[in-house]
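Lab notes, practical 5.
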Amino acid sequence: MTGSRRRWAWGVGIAAGTAGLLSWMPLFHVVPFPRGDAPQQSSAAATFDPVAFVDEFWTTRLIPGSDGAVDALELVSIIQQDHHSARKTHGHSVGLGSTYYYFIAGTGNVVSVDKNSIGLSLQEDQTQIPLVLETGNIFGNAVRDGTGLLDVNGFANSQDFNSVSSQINGRIETNVLPGLRKIAKPGVKLRFVGCVEITDEDTDLKPLRVVPFIIEAG
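Output from the prediction step:
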């Protein structure tokens, strides 16, 4: 047998042997996961509990955070002089939209009581109503976004963030507004803490419409 034919025979033999070895012991095995061990996708969004979140936020951050609210009389005065300056100094914005918010606290005398709002004067000799407290159904994101205490980037998705707003609004409607409507009579002095949502400066600045989450008489 010549050298070239001998090398060809060796090559064929090695290839055949390798093929046989791989058929008996492959390079890798495909092992399916048992059903109970299959990788699970994150369920953070599914397990988010807005009720529990708002319960904790309300007691540990929102109520204690009321010390950071701007004084209502001061804010109204700045707005009357230069509402652009007021927004720059005291406003809160979320995202790139034109809507902005104020976190506000103060004391006022009840001047008027309507079905969905209570008008307050902030000074004894004030004839105009610079501020009203909302007492109807609460919509929007005034309290969620107005305090500046919550960051949308801290939530897994927008659905969770929106559910927080719904829970806060519902809690105000259930726990705050009934008591407010009960004590609000012309001449009564009220202390309030709440937030204002400004979507149209032509209508939302005069008067300021406050969504209150703290109300005290006297």
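Observations recorded by the TA: The helical segments are 3-24, 44-47, 50-62, 72-81, 83-90, 142-146, 158-183, 201-204. Strands lie at 70-71, 92-93, 100-113, 117-121, 131-134, 189-198, 208-217.
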